[in-house]
Amino acid sequence: MGDIAAIIHDYGVLLLVGQYPTGPLGGLALTFILAVLGLALAFPLSVILALARVSPFRLLYWPATALVYVMRGLPLIMLIFWVYFFLPVLLGRPVSGFSTLLATLVIYEAAYLAEIVRAGIESLPRGQMEAARSVGLTYMQAMRKVVLPQAIYNMIPAMLSQLVSTIKETSLGYVISVNELTFAANQINSTLLTKPFPVFVVLATIYFVLCFSLTQVARQLERRVARRRAGIAGATAAPLVVPDIAAIAE
Amino acid sequence: MQPLDFSILLQGDAPQMLAHGIALMLELTAVAWLIAMVLGTLLALVRMTRLRVAEVAVGAWVEYHQNVPMLVQIFLWYFGIATLLPTALQMWLNRHDGEFTFAVIAIGLATSAYMSEGLRGGIRSIPSSQIEAARALGLSYLQSFRHVVFPQAFRIALPTLVNHTVLLFKNTSLAMTIGVAEMMYATREIESRTFKTIEIYLLATVIYLGISLVIMAGGSFAERRLRVATR
To answer: Which residues of B touch A3 (CB under 8 A)?
Structure first.
């Protein structure tokens, strides 16, 4: 226990924000920024992908489906190496580890989020779309004004779980030396040399506190959404069936 | 850009490294999956007893493994917990692929949490009257689990279990970070020797995708085979 207290005392700030404000931002702050930014940038892409996945046009359906399956079938680490190799070639200039990881997360998460949005669209009663069309809205108008707002509201808890997954995935930034939480802890470990167990216990605890809190919020929201869907506030309702793809253990 | 040249992958010890990597990857997947399924089933079974102690203990196990990145769990085992073992055991592990052992343990235990949650979801959807009926017929607690609850729960949980099998397979690539020479490690190694990045990455991508798709297809085949006509 003494070791753990000493590590938190000596390196707590480094683990939370890196060398900021005298140096670059790192640690938990960078982990969180990467995850939130990655998911936020992936969101618009995921809606487009989801619309293509429910579209009756094969020209839209097939490429989107292929992309989703490729992302679901590839380890994130493989994708990171692809982006690490290709992004500088594509842009014609060196790319930082941060941008590499962010770009990877956007592509990867877009595919997983798209499946969540699609499940949201498909879990709405068909009558919603039919009613919207019959009052004169076009397909896209009906999607934008009637179907998507409800689908996305219902899927907020699943998206929050996806944020937890993304936070855990940023730990892979370690392999391309992005100065996020796991990388910072490894640096501390190689500085101390003799205290690997306490260092990694501290590391695991930090992730746990953040991810567990967010998971609890997601569960709370899920209950609220389920109640609203049931239409009776306060009544116990069947939990919304969310596709299990949200749970990614990187 | 130069035309792709896959012939380099057939030269020197590249094919051998790759073959060894693929074998290790499959071995990691198989052993970790076995640990995850057996432990996951046991955890779900223990939780089903609804004893307070069991709920709390299994709940803590599940939450820890689901809310800490698997990479960190691997590091904790390999760098951390390894140092707490008796010296003789440490030496033995060093001589006998300690990296592989710790990677398999970390990946297997982490996935056991997801498997048990999947099974629990299945178990919860079985009406408790079924267990009561099974018990009333004279089956013991374990018998009613084995013959009545589990077969139905397993069928319901199957899509989740298949999903997590794919994830487990993908996650074996994390073992490269502690030096297990599985396929991702071999890929990186061959890349740094030959500089044929696109060729070797393409090959690895095709292999990963192929095996993932086979697992997914196997899952939906099993779902169809196990489907029972319902009224």
So the answer is: none
Decide if B1 is inside a domain: no
Within 128-187 of B, beta carbons closer than 8 Å to A belong to 159-160, 163-164, 166-168, 170-171, 173-174, 176-177, 184, 187
Tokens describing residue B73: 């769990």
Domain for residue B101, yes or no?
yes
Q: H or E element: which one contains B34?
A: helix B14-48
The mean per-residue pLDDT over the stretch B81-99 comes to: 91
In B125-175, alpha helices (H): 128-136, 141-144, 150-171
Q: What is the mean pLDDT of chain B?
A: 93
Choice between B185 and A1, residue whose per-residue pLDDT is larger: B185
* Three-class DSSP labels, chain A: CHHHHHHHHHHHHHHHHECCCCCCECHHHHHHHHHHHHHHHHHHHHHHHHHHHHCCCHHHHHHHHHHHHHHHHCCHHHHHHHHHHHHHHHHCCCCCHHHHHHHHHHHHHHHHHHHHHHHHHHCCCHHHHHHHHHCCCCHHHHHHHHHHHHHHHHCHHHHHHHHHHHHHHHHHHHHHCCCEHHHHHHHHHHHHCCCHHHHHHHHHHHHHHHHHHHHHHHHHHHHHHHHHHHCCCCCCCCCCCCCHHHCCCC
Task: Report ipTM for this prediction.
Answer: 0.93
Instruction: Name every chain A residue with its beta carbon within 8 A of the beta carbon of B167.
Output: 248-249
Q: Give the number of C-alpha atoms closer than 13 A to the C-alpha of residue B210, restricted to the C-beta side.
A: 8
Fold of A2-246: MetI-like fold (1.10.3720)
Residue B5 lies in a domain: no
Radius of gyration in angstroms for the set of CA atoms belonging to chain A, rounded to a whole number: 21
Tally of structural domains, chain B:
1
Instruction: Report the CATH number that the domain containing residue B18 is assigned in CATH.
Output: 1.10.3720.10
Tens digit of pLDDT for each residue in B143-200? 998 999 999 999 999 999 999 999 999 999 999 999 999 999 999 999 999 989 999 9
Task: Look at the pTM and tell me if it is higher than 0.95.
Answer: no
Q: Is residue B211 part of a domain?
A: yes
Domain that holds residue B155: 13-226
Nearest chain A alpha carbon to B211? A73
Q: Which residues, numbered 136 to 195 in chain A, qualify as contacts with chain B under a Cβ-Cβ cut-off of 8 Å?
A: 164, 167-169, 171-172, 174-175, 182, 186, 189
Q: Does B79 touch chain A (CB under 8 A)?
A: yes
Q: Report CB contact under 8 Å: A249, B197.
A: no
Contact flag B66-A203 (C-beta cutoff 8 Å)? no
